[in-house]
Amino acid sequence: MGKRFTRTSPVAHTLMGSLLAGASFTAVAQDQTLPPEALDWQPWEQSEASQQLCRGRYVMPGYRLPVEQNPETLSVETREADYAADGEALLRGDVVLRRGNTELEAERIFLPADRQQVDAEGNLVLRDGQALLRGDNATLMLNEDRATIRNSHYVLYEEHLRGQASQLEQIGEARYRLHDATFTTCDPGANTWQLVSSDIRLNQESGFGTARHARLQVKDVPIFYWPWLRFPIDDARHTGLLSPAIGFSTDGIDYAQPFYWNIAPNHDATITPRWMTDRGLLLNGEYRYLLDDSAGTVEGGYLSSDDGNSNNDNRFAGEERWYIDAQHAGRVNSRSNYNLRYGAASDGRYFDDFGGEFGDSDRTSMERMAQVDYRGERWQLDARAQGFQRLEDPLNDTDKPFYRLPSLTANSNWQLGHGLYSEWRSNATYFWRDVDERRVPEREAATGSRLHLTPALGWRGEESWGYIEPRTELWYTAYELDYGERETDRGTSPTRSVAVTSVDSGLVFERELELGNRDYQQTLEPRLNYAYVPRTNQTQLPDFDSRERAFSWDQLWSPHRFSGADRVGDLNRVSLGVQSRLIEDSNGRERLTFGVGQSVYFAERRIDSEGDPDTLPASPEEDPNVNPQRYYQATRDRSPLVTRLDWQINDRWSTGYEWLYDDHREQTERSSVDLRYRHPEGHVVNLGYRWEIEGFDPDVVPGDDSFRNYSREEWDLSFAWKASPSIDLIGRYLHDQTNDRSLEQLAGLQWNDCCYGVQLVWREWVDDNDTARIEDDFNDRGLFLRFVFRGLGGIGQQADSYFERTIPGYRPTPL
């Protein structure tokens, strides 16, 4: 039975400092190996193993000595203790020392008389709950922040990291040196990869380490060598190289090497040189900052001369290509915020050529804005100057958006009691754009100011069984216009006043229902809506921001046929519809929602983008250059029958459906259906179908970018299947049925292992703005590879965010 001694000593505290030397690094190494159990390795139970990437985990065993009430107290247990007359002490035979959370085991521990040094040898083991350190022997200087541990092995429990070093030295306060060191995150006995270095220095104060003659080994085969390597040793942001991104496509190799600059705790920057074999060297950068009440970013890219070697026709060969996007947002006070933004690009195809993941880019414009708002108890105010650069090449004058210089908005609401309410909506805007006013339609040729006031008065009576809401809005709009050099008979100070009246009503019937041994609540909700907008002459009004809305379920209940304020569509119609919901009583979740509705018109809709109340749109027989749907949409006596369905079939399957059917011509105008599968383990399958009749959008004419002189039909299949905790299979196929071609094909594999990950994706796609015109489409394909060494970083192009957008419902396993 061993003797037990208790005393206060700094020994364990200094040993802990040496432990942190290894723990801070994330690595140490040599050829000797220990059995897994000596590294506190615990395999998973059979029931757990199938769901884990690693074969086990590192778990610290229980302390051999109990904790003392005073954390500074040193507990000692040893079989033998020899003391010399001069004060020297030798502890032998399975010596155990504990101080606080740190416990040291060794065969022998020697304490000199001056107590300036501790020598420990023989199966040295040091644990503190976060890490394990083993070694043959150690020397610790108690008053000089110096220590040496020889033939060491270490484990970081939470980081799943282990390593070795022939010698570990503490060479100063929070500074350490490791000789002949390695580290890896692989399971014991599975050195898939490891980092090896002859000399590693760590500085905890600066948060950095350096390694000389470092090499990366895969299966003991060296694959990369650094004469000198600098790396972070904690989770703080540090200046240095980030993981590179490499892409391969039919145009060649695309290599980007980000460099991160930690300027200050609230400032940083990322500089990314990017070499493309088909275009040249592109320099990208991003600067971020965070102040007390504001934050912002500045990003941009610059290519001095486009080599123009892309497979696609590149008319920008030899030209500068660039973009800049700066944003700043802050708070004026508790009720007021402001936003500033400026974006610009050298040309409309910049982001198509350079900006997207896997060749994809969703930027369609660059915003310029200065905005401040106020949110009071009664009033909401907004002041802004705003404009957009439309990213399209070539860009016609008629497609350029108007700038708002400035736009002032004031809105408020009042509850007057007994269901009566009033609203105030107002806006004053000056519109401008840089175009040749002689080359655009007359209604778009003007610049100038617009004052738009829309006070409203309404009443809503609501009971549990239904509601009714009559409402009237007065639209008053006044302009001050300038047509420049355009000769016109239009007035420069037109005005418009028109009332928009509607009555919305509905009933709610409920009943209890049992289906499949489950209790539900079923509703039946008929709805009736009447809207009246008188026909008002608007031929003298410009067209700054209005667009006729395509018909939908929401349009059944809206009195507004146009977006924006420049057009108010004449309307005299009744909409009738019914909706039924199936609500699961146990949790209130809607299992099924089904609705069908239709509008009946009592008058033609003559107001279109021209604003003429006396003339119907031309029919295709009169003018072949008009949208073939416009005349029919204006004169039909009833809307398409709108049907929608949202059905949560069970916890895994759901579907959604929308169908617009013209019961007069007996044809479908638009339909879409989606079938979705979601498995608790992460499997995802999506199948979608979309159909749209030729020229369905009533607001466009042939020649517009959004006009389609064909019936659009597409199929979209995507899936992500987690074949195991290690393997994700992904794919997508988007088919253009109209032109019998694929718009996108994607297939990928993601392999996740305990200490590494691989992502391999093949993609072929069409850069398509308007499916009707295929001669101007861009086609491309590429093979994309990303390889990650867990705990060290990775090489390749990050794809997770693209997969989440392309495959709805998929959440990629992080590499």
From TrEMBL:
Localization in the cell: Cell outer membrane
Q: Enumerate the residue ranges of region (Disordered).
A: 609-628
Q: Name one GO cellular component term.
A: cell outer membrane
Q: Which residues form the signal peptide?
A: 1-29
Q: Keyword annotations for this protein?
A: Cell outer membrane, Membrane, Signal
Q: Where is the Organic solvent tolerance-like N-terminal domain?
A: 85-207
Listed InterPro entries: LipoPS_assembly_LptD, LptD, LptD_C, OstA-like_N
GO biological process, alphabetically ordered: Gram-negative-bacterium-type cell outer membrane assembly; lipopolysaccharide transport
Query: Per the UniProt record, which residue ranges are transmembrane?
Result: none
| Stretches assigned to the LptD C-terminal domain | 320-724
Similarity comment: family membership? Belongs to the LptD family.
Assembly mode:
Component of the lipopolysaccharide transport and assembly complex. Interacts with LptE and LptA.
Q: What does this protein do?
A: Together with LptE, is involved in the assembly of lipopolysaccharide (LPS) at the surface of the outer membrane.
Give the protein's recorded name: LPS-assembly protein LptD
In which organism is this protein found? Answer: Vreelandella populi
Q: Which gene encodes it?
A: lptD
